[in-house]
Amino acid sequence: MEQKEIIDLLDAMEEKMLDKVTLGFSPEILAILDDMDASNNEIEMLKSRIGNEIMMHIFNIANSAYYGSLRKGSIYTFYEVVTRLGMSHTKALIIILGLQLLARGDKEIEVIFARSFASSVIGKVIAQQFGMRDDAVKKVELGGLFSEIGKMIMVLYKKLHAPEDERIDEEFIAKYQVYLSERIIEKFALPDYLKAMIFSECLVVEANYLTMSGLTQLAVNLVATSFHKFHNLLVIETLPLPSGQDQVATLDSIIEDQFNAVNLGKYLRIIKKRERLLPKYENKKKK
């Protein structure tokens, strides 16, 4: 395809998939989340304009142990949700959950969403384990969530509006989905650092450090490997707690709570430490 034809196709995808009719809400209303002077009431009014199902999932996420509800307590207003999750993360969740609901029942789209969501969760865990600051952790988390949003929109567009368009094949989607993601970042005034993250295809380092893009890619690749190896499952092996140790919430249970918050529990498998199939090898010296 010529460059103009590619751009025209991306234009059509953006126009069709990111309007009020498709998403169920007007994208312009999310601009209120960028207004530092917006009142509590203005932010709270967004609930009635976005839709109950999206709001339910976002509240579930904000109240999950993953976001510290055990320590901070439950929240009940949308203003509190935005304060806890952050404006950019709340906005991104609204967009991607709107697309997920649009594709309800479509296995392929749901798997893409599940991978992205898993990358976000695992990205946050890895960043925290690396001892990164909270603001950096949130960036890695958001990068994982947006890692396949362009692909999600392209596949959904083809199924809804262009099932016979042979131009939109796997090769086209793999090559240009990041450019559509870039458009979404611009359209919804999301942070510029997301662009570097979505265009990264390998581990990115700077001097003696892994960058946020590098950690995001680490999470994306880990999740992709697990989904490939275990047939669309993120599999986590958990070790038994030391004798006498009792934790209120272990890391595996926190991750599980997060997946259940958006009805993705079926894409997570937590297993106990596996037993050896054969006895431990002993090197027997020849006499």
Task: Please provide a brief summary of the model.
By secondary structure, the chain is mainly alpha-helical. It has helices at residues 3-17, 20-23, 40-44, 46-50, 52-62, 69-72, 78-85, 87-102, 107-129, 134-145, 149-161, 170-187, 193-199, 212-229, 251-261, and strands spanning 205-206, 209-210, 234-238, 268-272.
What does this structure look like?
- With 287 residues, this protein is mainly alpha-helical.
- Helices cover 59% and strands 5% of the residues.
- It has 15 helices and 4 strands.
- Strand 1 and strand 2 form a beta hairpin.
- The mean pLDDT is 88.
Keywords:
287 residues, mainly alpha, two-stranded parallel sheet, 59% helix, globular
- Main sheet makeup: 2 strands, antiparallel
The main sheet orders its strands as 1-2
The tally of helices reads 15
**Rg, alpha carbons:** 21 Å
Quick one: overall form? Answer: globular
Name the helicity range.
Answer: 55-70%
Amino-to-carboxy terminus distance: 71 Å
Oligomer: single chain
Secondary-structure element order, N to C = HHHHHHHHHHHHHEEHEHE
Low-confidence stretches: none
* Binned strand content: under 5%
Give the total of beta strands.
4
- Counting helices, strands and paired strands, the structural category is mainly alpha
Mean pLDDT score:
88
